[in-house]
UniProtKB/TrEMBL annotation:
Lineage: Eukaryota, Metazoa, Ecdysozoa, Arthropoda, Hexapoda
Record keywords: cAMP, cAMP-binding, Nucleotide-binding, Phosphoprotein, Repeat
Listed name of the protein: cAMP-dependent protein kinase type II regulatory subunit
One Pfam family linked to the record: cNMP_binding
Molecular function terms from GO: cAMP binding; cAMP-dependent protein kinase inhibitor activity; protein kinase A catalytic subunit binding
Amino acid sequence: PLVNRYASRRKSVFAETYDPENDDEDEGARAIFPKTDEQRARLCDSVKNILLFRSLDKEQMNEVLDAMFEKIVQAKDYIIKQGDDGDNFYVIESGIYNAYVGEDQKHIHTYDNRGSFGELALLYNMPRAATIQAETDGKLWAMDRQTFRRILLKSAFRKRKMYEALLDAVPMLKALQNYERMNLADALIPQTYTKGDRIIKQGDAADGMYFIEDGKVSIRIQQDAGEVEISNLEKGGYFGELALVTHRPRAASAYAVDNVKVAFLDVDAFERLLGPCMNIMKRNIGDYETQLVKIFGSKNNITDIR
């Protein structure tokens, strides 16, 4: 018979709740599973493309790495079974795993040495929606449900509150309704740059726009004599939107003056969420040209940003 080495499931655990708004500080000790440098490097490689972790900052990502523990899997092991309460979230390091649903165990997906599974039951307090069985021997990294919910839900809550405050201070976004700003906050991705880093390059295709959380950013235009600074932006400022509005290459480069934290909005989310602000941004193009003419004396001396 097929062996389920993970059969000792706790029942009636998925009714528990976690309220990030009332969690001022994490209670109790953080889950930390010691790892060798080699194990940590392997885990980093396994989680780097997991969509769920995309919005975590460096400190939160380290907490994820600390909290995950290794599971050695043998072929034919059942990792999770449909209908069970969710206890762990799994990231695949190696091995092939098949997902099945229904009483007839219909095959719906194969994970081939990459990916993750088990998050739905933990995020939404619902029983397992599918059965996952190992086809080969392999290795998984697991995180228990409480740690998973605390890190992911608290991260999402803090991120939304922080970005809502940031966006509230951006005059252009006053045209958005509250729920539209909330959707925008959820779509932002944190990025960090160190002093001297180039954030965007003049002439490149535009992939998104940036809101400054912390630090200073220098906006520069390349001229025959070299780069000329045309603006210096601080917390609450934003840049990169002009190329998205005009559908042209970047009109300027942006550099980190010191250590900079930005919230990045990719082009798809920009087009989906910032429709109400488009007229304001188009007006900004005119203001931008006026500013350049003051600097360079003639519109003939500046790169066409339209």
